[in-house]
Design goal:
By secondary structure, the protein is α/β, with parallel strands linked by helices. 41% of the residues lie in helices and 18% in strands.
Length: 272
């Protein structure tokens, strides 16, 4: 992924760049297939903290350099920790990659999968709101085959996305899903050729930027919390209590949208 202006390479294994209201975070350990190191977890936490806090940033894209998106955790580093008698890696507050447990987000996050996404790599993609994937990439949760467990939200998000039987098939067998299967299962939104990935992700970002930020935040919260309620009537009854809904109600965003439509102009959205 390219950006018009950037902050340069991050020594912790990611590259962060800004193009107007779009923040791009690129995993940048191509020689290790972008395996996530402890330093990368912290750097990604910082990057997505910045994204949430900066009102000028409205959409983020998570992608990677090299031929893989991410093959999960750096197992060599994990083995070295165990050999030193150290315990499991302590994840940052946002969870795996700084996003897996970052609930209540108010801005959309797009995954642009440039290559294979295994283990934690798939969990990062599942934590994003929208996913664009190249047609040659594959997805997998191979952890059980290594005597490990996917603890970055993968099984929990899979069952919500594809149902119990498909989730069990993916999570227990560790098989590699093709891009076509991922699209059919509803795990990704777009499948494109490698040369079209950048344009596809940025076009999706531009589509979101045309929407009201408060309306996007409210809609995201509706989708994310709907299954928390036992019935549709309760979900509808509770939606007015959501913080994002209350902020949107208190804003003039809907009025500005109507005025812009009537005047046949682009809306002038304000940060929420």
């Amino acid at each position: 992924m390219n950006a018009a202006s950037g902050m340069g390479d991050d020594p912790a294994g990611i590259e962060v760049s800004v193009d107007g209201p779009i923040l791009t975070v690129a995993l940048a350990r191509p020689a290790r297939l972008n395996a996530i190191s402890p330093e990368m977890h912290l750097a990604m936490q910082d990057a997505f903290d910045r994204f949430e806090a900066d009102e000028s940033l409205r959409v983020a894209i998570l992608t990677a350099t090299g031929r893989a998106f991410c093959v999960g955790s750096d197992l060599k580093a994990a083995a070295e920790r165990r050999s030193r008698g150290e315990g499991p890696l302590a994840l940052p507050p946002g969870g795996y990659g700084g996003i897996a447990s970052r609930f209540g987000r108010t801005k959309p996050l797009i995954a642009a999968i440039n290559g294979d996404a295994y283990g934690g790599g798939l969990e990062l993609a599942l934590a994003c709101d929208l996913v664009v994937m190249v047609d040659t990439a594959r997805l997998s949760l191979p952890e059980p085959g290594f005597g490990m467990v996917a603890i970055g939200g993968g099984p929990h998000r899979l069952i919500r996305a594809v149902g119990a039987k498909r989730a069990m098939d993916i999570a227990l067998t560790g098989r590699r899903l093709t891009a076509a299967e991922a699209l059919d299962f509803g795990l990704v939104n777009r499948v494109v050729g490698i040369d079209a990935l950048d344009d596809a992700a940025r076009e999706l970002a531009r589509t979101l930027l045309r929407c009201g930020p408060g309306a996007l935040a409210t809609t995201m919260q509706m989708v994310e919390t709907s299954l928390d309620y036992p019935s549709l009537p309760e979900a509808l009854a509770r939606q007015e209590q959501a913080p994002a809904m209350q902020r949107w109600r208190a804003s003039d965003e809907a009025l500005e949208g109507a005025r812009a439509f009537a005047a046949k102009r682009e809306p002038a959205w304000r940060a929420q």
